[in-house]
User: Which sequence fits this backbone?
């Protein structure tokens, strides 16, 4: 048997799905987290039930991809039962979708979720009355507390065995006779679900009009004959109005409000601060800075920066020496820098210590100089070591992103930022997928589906890789050590993230200017109530990320490590045995690439080809950039000790190139499947040339900085001013065009 | 007295009379419960003055002044 979960965004559908299936899919607190349907199994009934979690939707109209997914699934795949999850704290709007689901011939069970919240608020919902009016079973549950789930499944199972005829709540409205006429017409044409299609046809639903061209004319005539003063024959308005009118009229009695209902809830109070007219934007910036500081800073409380304090906590040292590290190792490697490291950096050095130990262990008992020792120690272990030491930081960054998502703050950020985003040709809604890009580009690009406007979707996908993902974080962390003045490593990391954002903004403005018949995408969005993030959901998300990481590490990254090891250990005549790295196949390939990258600075010099190779292997997975560098001897596995010498301008140029160039193959494939056909080739060209040009500019400006600080600043100021000025002139010209 | 939703002040309450939007925006507004007869209250403006947040049908909805300027409301 197959049950589908359908409901509004934020109704707790995904939490219910997780509780039923034990799956660990992610739950977020903003519209549209389930961007594709997901499947799991419920095993507590006599027979196994497949549960399908559909994307959250407000209506069955076909204007966003997720609405189409849900609608097609229910109509075409014919689940045995549709469980309509309803947020009981917000019945009115949630039941609007219910009224549409009832018009499809399929068993429906309405499940009132969040009943625990309703009860604590002092309200009462008479679900038996609701049941009578709707004509389907209504079950009270709390997905979060796992209350009432077995009852829900038992009832759904019974309902699934029965047939249910399609029925509309619109029956008593005067226009229903028109619906019936269209329905009859469709019935004679043997159309399935004639009632549903009839109503959608009357609403002039684009998908319906295209799929039933033979009846369109007749429908238009019927509509014309129907006289209506209130809406002037606009059936879209008539139907939507009737649904809501029906809901208000019939369900007002089933909700009993508490006597002294709180006017201002806790959520409102939090919201007052977080969306404050003056403070909201500074608060947002501080939150983002804190996240990166806690994950990447080597000087958590700025003790060293301010007081020049060196902290060598005895307890910490004793802890590590107790675990078998020597005193020198502890002070040199585990607590390498002055000041107190952030949890992210602390965990990273700890992880590096563990994986480094493993490598030493193998190195100790394997015979020296054989190919298999080289394969295991210099190939596999060196590579895996370098990515695993960054695992804590990636997970920590993900943890913070999920806290921001789950709490409902993200939707507010979209609200706060919309005005600014509109200037760039985007809407505040695109903030959500772009911000998810900090975690991983793949889900971020998929999340762009929630944007209704095709152009905005394409643009958002194109810009997503600029928001550097978790896999790029190790590159910045490693280069931060290489930049002279390493104490300010987190500033370098922050700069890389900031640069990505700035370039994304400039690029979107340019694209907006050059795109023909451009229109501002709409912004009509629910602001969900704040929820404290649920520990279980956060852990589920981290676990999913962890699994994904392990999967990636054990497959594509290991494979590329082995390939790099082979190419870097053997010459073209590989049957003759191992050679020095300088004479390897990889070196020759790298030297060719190095010519291409020559103007960017970082591929110059004897080690230049290694950087070229690292940039190219980054296509496989971005973690591979550091892994390759470690394998080629540019840094140690933990990325903490740098074994190359490069000027800051070249380091910045190298970092910028890797930030803006093609994302990994997985992200490129996602971009292809998620963006429109004509936009994808442009996106590829944009990534290819954009990264080259920006890296070149960064290198040249960096060179000027190295000549003299003031010269650099001057040129930077000139570039900044000319960008602003051009933007101003162009926008003025466009305004004139609009006026004319 | 009727006026457009974008002309509301913070805290003002009214009843929607008509939605003049077209196409997708109209559909979206309808689906989100912005239909004639619904009661709306303007909760706040975003820090940069736009979009606005309104309370209707028991939840918080955010929309731009542009979109709000298509909604005619009878002031209470």
Assistant:
């Amino acid at each position: 048997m197959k049950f589908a979960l359908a409901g509004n965004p934020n109704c707790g559908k995904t939490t219910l799905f997780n509780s039923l299936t034990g799956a660990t899919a992610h739950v977020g607190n903003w519209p549209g987290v389930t961007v594709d349907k997901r499947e799991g199994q419920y095993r507590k009934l006599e027979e196994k039930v497949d549960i399908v979690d559909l994307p959250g939707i407000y209506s069955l109209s076909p204007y966003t991809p997720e609405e189409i997914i849900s609608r097609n699934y229910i109509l075409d795949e014919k689940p045995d039962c549709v469980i309509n999850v309803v947020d009981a704290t917000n019945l009115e709007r949630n039941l609007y979708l219910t009224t549409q689901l009832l018009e499809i011939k399929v068993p429906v069970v309405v499940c009132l979720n969040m009943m625990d919240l309703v009860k604590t608020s002092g309200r009462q919902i008479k679900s038996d009355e609701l049941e009578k009016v709707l004509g389907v079973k209504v079950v009270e549950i709390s997905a979060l507390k796992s209350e009432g789930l077995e009852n829900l499944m038992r009832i759904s199972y019974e309902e699934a065995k029965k047939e249910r005829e399609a029925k509309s709540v619109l029956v008593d409205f005067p226009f229903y006779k028109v619906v019936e006429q269209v329905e009859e017409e469709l019935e004679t044409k043997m159309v399935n679900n004639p009632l549903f299609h009839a109503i959608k046809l009357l609403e002039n639903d684009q998908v319906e009009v295209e799929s039933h061209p033979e009846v369109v004319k007749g429908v238009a005539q019927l509509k014309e004959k129907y006289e209506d003063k209130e809406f002037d024959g606009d059936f879209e308005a008539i139907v939507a109005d009737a649904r809501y009118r029906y809901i208000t009229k019939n369900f007002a009695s089933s909700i009993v409000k508490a006597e002294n209902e709180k006017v201002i809830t806790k959520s409102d109070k939090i919201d007052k601060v977080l969306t404050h007219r003056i403070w909201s934007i500074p608060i947002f910036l501080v939150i983002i800075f804190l996240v990166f500081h806690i994950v990447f800073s080597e000087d958590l409380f700025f003790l060293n920066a301010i007081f020049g304090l060196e902290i060598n906590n005895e307890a910490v040292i004793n802890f590590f020496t107790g675990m078998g590290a020597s005193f020198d190792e502890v002070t040199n490697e585990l607590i390498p820098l002055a000041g107190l490291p952030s949890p992210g950096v602390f965990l990273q050095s700890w992880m590096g210590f563990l994986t480094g130990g493993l490598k030493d262990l193998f190195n100790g008992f394997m015979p020296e100089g054989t190919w298999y020792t080289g394969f295991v120690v210099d190939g596999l272990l060196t590579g895996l070591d370098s990515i695993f030491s960054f695992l804590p930081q990636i997970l920590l960054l993900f943890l913070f992103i999920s806290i921001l998502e789950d709490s409902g703050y993200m939707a507010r950020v979209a609200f706060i930022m919309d005005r600014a985003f509109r200037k760039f040709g985007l809407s505040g809604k695109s903030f959500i997928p772009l911000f998810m890009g900090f975690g991983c580009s793949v889900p971020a690009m998929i999340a762009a589906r929630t944007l209704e406007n095709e152009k905005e979707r394409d643009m958002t996908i194109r810009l997503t890789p600029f928001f550097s993902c978790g896999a790029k974080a190790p590159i910045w962390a490693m280069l931060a050590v290489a930049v002279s003045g390493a104490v300010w490593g987190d500033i370098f990391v922050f700069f890389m993230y900031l640069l990505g954002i700035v370039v994304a903004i400039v690029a979107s403005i340019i694209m907006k200017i050059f795109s023909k018949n451009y229109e501002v995408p709409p912004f009509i969005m629910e602001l969900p109530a704040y929820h404290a993030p649920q520990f279980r959901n956060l852990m589920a998300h981290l676990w999913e990320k962890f699994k994904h990481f392990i999967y990636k590490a054990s497959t594509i990254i290991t494979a590329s490590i082995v390939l790099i090891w082979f190419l870097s250990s053997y010459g073209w005549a590989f049957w003759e045995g191992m050679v020095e790295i300088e004479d390897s196949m990889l070196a020759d390939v790298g030297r060719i690439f190095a010519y291409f990258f020559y103007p960017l600075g970082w591929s110059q010099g004897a080690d230049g080809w290694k950087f070229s190779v690292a940039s190219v292997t980054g296509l496989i997975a971005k973690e591979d950039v550091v892994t390759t560098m470690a394998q080629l001897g540019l840094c140690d596995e933990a990325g903490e000790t740098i074994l190359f010498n490069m000027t800051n301008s070249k380091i910045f140029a190298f970092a910028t190139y890797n930030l803006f160039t093609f994302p990994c193959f997985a992200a490129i494939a996602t971009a292809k499947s998620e963006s429109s056909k004509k936009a994808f080739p442009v996106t590829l060209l944009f990534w290819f040339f954009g990264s080259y040009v920006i890296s070149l500019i960064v290198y040249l400006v960096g060179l000027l900085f190295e000549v003299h600080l003031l010269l650099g600043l001057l040129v930077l100021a000139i570039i900044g001013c000319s960008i602003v000025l051009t933007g101003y002139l162009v926008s003025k010209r466009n305004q004139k065009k609009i006026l004319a | 007295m009727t006026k457009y939703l974008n002309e509301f002040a913070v805290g003002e309450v009214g009843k929607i009379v008509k939605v003049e939007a077209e196409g997708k925006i109209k559909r979206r507004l309808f689906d989100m419960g912005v239909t004639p007869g619904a009661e709306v209250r303007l909760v706040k403006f975003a820090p940069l003055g736009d979009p606005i947040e309104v309370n209707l049908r028991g939840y918080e909805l955010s929309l731009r002044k542009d979109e709000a300027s298509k909604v005619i409301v009878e002031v209470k």
DSSP finds 33 helices and nine strands in chain A.
